[in-house]
Amino acid sequence: MENYDNIYLEPGLKESITKLKNSMNAVIMAHSYQTHDVQSIADFTGDSLELARKAADTDADVIVFCGVDFMAESAKILSPSKTVLLPDTEARCPMAAMCDVQGLVDLKKQHPDAVVITYINSSAAVKAESDVICTSANAVKIVEHYKNRKIIFTPDKNLGSYCSEITGADIILWNGYCYVHDEFSTGDIYIAKHQHPGCLLLVHPESPREVLEHADFIGSTSQIIKFVEENASAMDEQAGVIIGTEIEIANTLQNRFPHKKIYPLAEHAVCRQMKKTTPEKVLKSLQSGTTEIFVEKSVRDKALGALKKMLELS
Ligand code: SF4
Predict the structure, then answer these.
(1) Whole-model pTM above 0.90?
(2) Nearest CA to ligand 1 atom 5
(3) Ligand 1 in contact with 274 (CB < 6 A)?
(4) For strand 132-134 and strand 200-203, is the pairing parallel, antiparallel, or unpaired?
(5) 303-173-179-296 Cα dihedral, nearest 10 degrees
(6) Architecture in CATH for domain 184-264
(7) CATH number of 95-178, picked from 3.40.50.10800, 3.10.450.50, 3.40.50.2000, 3.40.50.2300
(8) Which of 265, 273, 276 to mutate to test the pocket of ligand 1 (most atoms within 8 A of CB)?
(9) pLDDT digits (tens, 9 = 90+) for 90-118
């Protein structure tokens, strides 16, 4: 369990959030890349799919989504009758923005037989133009299913390339990337391994190929967390793990396992968009009902179809 005892919030802030949240029948969801301040006021934390599913399952009328734009949209797609609020509208994922609908429509025209597999880190409109969605945890499995067909993979070229390598599938890669993971380099690995000899390197598949080649374990955020949970007792005092994903995951794991050696691969692995949300903005969002996320019904219906296809294949 996460320990939030060392979190300092303005006096009365947490109480004001809780009071308002209860009176509105609201829940607060926080992605695991959010700051510990924000995670400490959340009802649920997790990756984007876990949170979207929890949002759909809850009886709450209002969901305050502490994450980025596409995550709030996914929650709205799965829970159309609920009010979904994004506390900071500037919290937009740059990778999702790299894939535009018209560009995808044009690419589909060039390859009419291709199946379009889209990473969940994408806009609702792009999901609606896709045949099936994937997450970083199930991308290989989804690509494997379609490996005998031509595949268009959007928007993350690194995740698509990794899937192609594992499955041998013929994939047309969209040229998008997550800057947080794409900036990992072999130089980062050299420094981290030198500073922490004997540690295992765990890396997210949004990272470049030359980084993945050095990994002892490749997995999604939740798979990396699970790996540490399952191996924590075997991690001795000398050797531990180097975490190659957004820095909050290493911080969270270190907080949960204070006596284990857990290091971030690089200090620069910070998603600035994820850090835009603060507890103060969450309170303001509850007070003013801003900013509500809407997804047009025609887009929602098609995007939901692609999400359901993923759930069927997972
Ligand atoms: S970590 Fe990468 S994929 Fe996730 S929100 Fe930030 S930029 Fe987007």
Answers:
(1) yes
(2) 93
(3) yes
(4) unpaired
(5) -20
(6) 3-Layer(aba) Sandwich (3.40)
(7) 3.40.50.10800
(8) 273
(9) 999 999 999 999 999 999 999 999 999 99
